[in-house]
Design a protein that fits this description.
CATH topology: Growth Hormone, Chain: A
Number of strands: 0
CATH architecture: Up-down Bundle
Order of helices and strands: HHHHHHHHHHHHHHH
Distance between the termini: 37 Å
Radius of gyration: 20 Å
Number of helices: 15
Largest sheet: none
CATH superfamily: MFS general substrate transporter like domains
Shape: globular
Strand content: under 5%
Structural class: mainly alpha
Length: about 400
């Protein structure tokens, strides 16, 4: 919740201070670069060391970075320092990301894991709804409070982690970090189902990411005169819409049996994500835009559940940290790189062209992946997944 509020505040403040779409893209770039640098080594650390302590160290750094952003904002210091702190914040978060992803299978019995992912997704989407909504209210009064809220939330997470007791699990031998990282990359490359699922998500998010441009849509493109709300409030609702759609979907599928024909479902959902992104890009109606963003969240949530089950349940525990690191690079950094791509295209052309072309690109990727990864297309029930050595 705190991270979502901080993300909203950063986008609003950077565009408010610079007035340039490229600055929103630069936010994404400075968050993506450290993810690319740290995530693979972090995957090795997650397989070799205590995952819980690694997460606590990661969150401590993120707490300090959020407090630093609040100070920079208060004194209106150069945006160059803001970019630096965003770089450090992403670096710390990337350090703990593979460990966090790899912990879940240790806490949930295999037969309940798919359902646990569904419910976990529901809880995550609640924070995605509440965070931007709170952030939209906060930035209309005092933008620095959003950064402080993020710092408080990550500090609270550290306290929660001190109460967690993990079951003992096998770890890899420490040393030869480069060789162990290469082994993780080789594992992903060898297993086509795993590679196809995470690379599909990478390109879909990379091309279809409209979230970073929402401050521009709220200020300049969407007609707010008919609904009579301020741009700050509209931005909060627009940022919350994908999470609302995802939450409703997650809550629905959590009550349903295991997903059958998971491969085809994944492909259709990513295609739906592309179509709704295109419609959002050409819409100037607030309510239509809100619905389309909600649908992007709904489609994305189903694809996330399928991909997460594949990437965790088909992988042995001693390899999960490194595989989740590869997944984090494919998926996590694609959000930020996609934000840079969207901002750059919007700067060269227009925000509308940026969003619409991204949606079209997503549809092209789905068509290509349908032919390139037959094992993904033919995947049946998620409950039939087995650990691949």
């Amino acid at each position: 919740m705190g991270t979502a509020a901080q993300s909203l505040a950063i986008g609003w403040e950077m565009y408010d201070r610079t007035g340039q779409a490229l600055s929103l893209g630069m936010v994404g770039l400075f968050q993506a670069i450290p993810m690319l640098l740290i995530t693979l080594p972090a995957g090795y650390l997650a397989d070799a060391f205590d995952r819980r302590k690694l997460m606590m160290l990661s969150l401590a750094g993120a707490t300090l970075a959020s407090l630093g952003l609040a100070i920079l904002s208060w004194y209106q210091m150069s945006v160059k320092w803001t970019y630096l702190l965003l770089f450090l914040d992403s670096l710390f978060l990337g350090l703990g990301s593979p460990a966090q992803r790899a912990i879940t299978p240790l806490l949930i019995p295999n037969k309940h894991f798919e359902n646990a992912v569904k419910w976990g997704s529901s809880l995550f989407q609640i924070t995605g709804i509440v965070g931007p909504a709170i952030g939209g209210i906060i930035i209309s009064f005092n933008i620095q409070v959003a950064y402080i809220l993020s710092a408080f939330s990550s500090a609270a997470f550290i306290i929660f982690l001190t109460t967690m007791v993990l079951p003992s699990a096998s770890k890899i031998h420490r040393g030869d970090m480069l060789g162990q990282i290469v082994a993780g990359l080789g594992y992903v490359g060898k297993h086509r189902l795993l590679l196809g699922s995470i690379s599909l998500d990478l390109f879909a998010v990379l091309l279809g990411g409209a979230v970073y441009l929402l401050p521009i849509f709220a200020r300049e493109i969407i007609d707010l005169s008919r609904v009579g709300i301020a741009p700050e409030t509209a931005l909060g609702w627009l940022r919350s819409a994908p999470a609302i759609g995802a939450f409703i979907t997650a809550l629905t599928i959590a009550h349903l049996p295991t997903i059958e024909r998971a491969g085809k479902t994944l492909l259709w959902c990513v295609a739906g994500f592309g179509v709704t992104t295109i419609i959002f890009g050409i819409s100037q109606n607030f309510w239509l835009s809100l619905v389309m963003l909600a649908l992007t969240g709904a489609f994305d949530n189903i694809s996330v559940v399928i991909r997460r089950v594949i990437s965790q349940m088909s992988v042995p525990n001693q390899m999960r940290g490194r595989v989740q690191a590869v997944t984090a690079i494919f998926v996590g950094s694609s959000n930020e790189i996609g934000g840079f791509e969207s901002g750059l295209v919007a700067h060269i052309f227009t925000p509308v062209i940026s969003v619409v072309s991204g949606g079209i690109g997503t549809l092209i990727i789905v068509a290509a992946w349908t032919g390139l990864f037959p094992s993904l297309r033919s995947l049946g029930s998620l409950s039939s997944l087995k650990v691949e050595r």
